[in-house]
Each structure stands twice: as structure tokens, then as C-alpha cells.
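Show me a record, fold above all:
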Amino acid sequence: MQPDRHAASQVELSTGGTIGGMSEGASPTSAPRAERLAAGRRRQCLAAAMLATVALLVAGCTSSSPTPAPGPATGTPGGSAGPGGSATATSGPASTSAPAPATTAPGAPATTTMSTYDVPDGSHPHDVAPAADGGIWYTAQGSGELGWLDPDSGQVVEIDLGSGSAPHGVIVGPDGAAWVTDSGLNAIVRVEGDSHAVTDFPLQAPAANLNTATFDGDGVLWFTGQGGVYGRLDPSVGRVETFPAPRGRGAYGIATTPAGDVYLASLAGSYLGAINRTTGALTVLDTPTPGGGARRVWSDSGGRLWVTEWFAGRLARYDPASATWLEWDVPGEAQPYAVYVDEDDGVWITDFGSNAIHRFDLATESFLTLTHDRSPANVRQLLGRTGEVWGAESATDRLVVVRFGP
């Protein structure tokens, strides 16, 4: 049964070595929706009736030239070293949100509108994922629930994930279900889209501090744990494996290329990691700025990896075909956190330093900046669908969407 819906209004980014791993088995545990919801709470709320106009600061044509990477970067997916090379430096219907002024920068969207949706107080939403039914899943890290938002009405349903839950990431799998990385339960959690039945796949590795997940080209789920692990879960057999991350703590973001290959980002380790999907071994690709702090990663349509360097204040791109890096300074006193690449290869990043979302256009090497109307917003992750980029304002108990188009 789908969540009920009502009408309401909305407010509106080396050198290699391979690391082997150890495997571990884990049996899934499940409970039907009725049992889980009877033990917890299923909360519904409507978005605030008052409509707010978001103040948007648009810095179209803020340009940034790429910085050449120091020295060669090597390594390819599959755990084997690739050819070296140096990067070359070359310069709802009911919405009343205010559209950002159009920019004339080639490649930038002609229209850009930011909207927000309230979620229950204390949810502290962390990650989001567009649901198969048109809604938006989000992890309510503060209340231990998985939330679902209807963008048409603003209605919210929150599903209890169990005692001790502190969900971090959420993605939608090939099966249409929501898959959650839950650091509180130390488990991968599957939530059925229709029935909301919950199934847990616990890790044997203690205190993994689970962060983010992605499905590879074969339908296997890969995940990161900032406690010093990364791992995989094959849903067809329900078996969890973990591997020790190079340099210990720090594995955070993770993404899949169009070819089905998987890369992770290590914040504390300051590297991009190419995972061998067969063996689980990982090739380390150091960030172009030493100690740059690779926070999140996303692939563009050509399989190039975009990485936010939290400590360096830069946006970086790694090209596996040439084994080269490029990077750009993010405007202002930047602390770039999340990264997402849209269907037009526009690169979106969140920035704690400027309390904003930026869109980087490679053709013009310029940033379009949209500033949040509340500070701090603390958007830690982005995910989207055609014409939309979604995030969660963890500091304001709201979801945020940027809608863009011609």
C-alpha cells in the first residue's frame, strides 16, 4: 500500500597499491511493516501553510581556472596500475518560489528555482534519494527513521527502523526498494517501497560508522564505513563482506560509473579509491592537493570522477582513461561537501563555507551559486532526477530541491 497523499503547498560536488580484504557472513533479519510500525511511530505532517520566497544569490559566470595536478596519477579499476600521466592545465504546482535571474553563461540552465519542504522537527535529515513512486526518500538521522516526502503535497511519512537506528545514506536499488546505510544499527537496511517491510543485513565488523552506498553494474551493493572499512552486499544471497580501507579511517562517499565500476572517496585518507569488483581490492589515487580531503564522489556520463576536496576547498576531476587529475578553486571561503552530476553533465556541489549550492559548468569553467535562505543549512549530500537536484538541510529540518531547465 502506498503512503496516503493529500494536497498542500511547498516552500521553496597517485599512486596505486592494492589492499586485500576479509569477508564475513551475515544473515538478514526482517519484520513486516505492521510489526515495525507498531513498535515505533509512523509520523505524517504537512508542509507549513505559509509560503516563503527563497533569497537566491546567483553568481553566474564566476570563473575558475583548473590547477594542474602535481605529478603523475596512476591506477585503474581492477586493482592494477594503469598508465601514468600529468594533468594538463587549461584555462508543484503550488510553488511560489522565486526563480533565480537567468544567466547568459553558455551551458548554464536558463531557469533555476530553489524550494524547501519541512520535515518533522528533530529528524535532522542527512541523505535523500528520489523514490520509484515519485516521492523522495530521506534518512531521518536524528529520529532513527526513513522518511518519504510527497513533493506534490508536502506530506511526510516516517518509518521506524528500530531501536538505536541512526541512518546515514539512502539510495534506490534496481529492485525499487530503499537501501539504507545505518551507522546506529551497524547494518544495511532494505525498506520495501510499497509495504514498507524492513530487512536488516548486519555487519560483523564492529563500529563501521556506515556512510554511503551504491549499486555496481552487476546489482551488487557497495558501501563505505568511515570507521575504516568498505564492503559489499549481494542481495541475491544476502551475504555481507567487508574490507579494511587503506590508511584506516575515512571511507565516505562512493559512486558507480556508467560502465558499472565503483569508486570511493576517503576523507581522512585524502584519496579516490578504484575498487576491483571481483576481488574487492582497492587502488589508491591520491587527491591532486595533498591532504585535500576527498569527501564525496560522482561520475559524469563519460566515466570521469568528480570529487569534493573538503580541506582544500576545491573541486577535482579524475579521468580514468588518461589517469589524470584537474581541479578548480570553489568560490569564496569554500568547504565543498556533496557532489552530484546531472543529466547534462552539470556538476552540483554543496558548500558549507558559503552556505550555498553551486553548479559548475565545465565548458565555461564558471560557477552558478544559489545561497540558502537559512544559515547554516548544512546540506551533506545531493541526488537528483531529470531537471531536479535534491538535498537535505540537516540543520534546518528541511529538504531542498533545485529545479532547472531551459
Residues 145 and 160 are 5 Å apart (CA to CA). The radius of gyration is 20 Å. The domain at 18-405 is CATH 2.130.10.10 (Methylamine Dehydrogenase; Chain H).
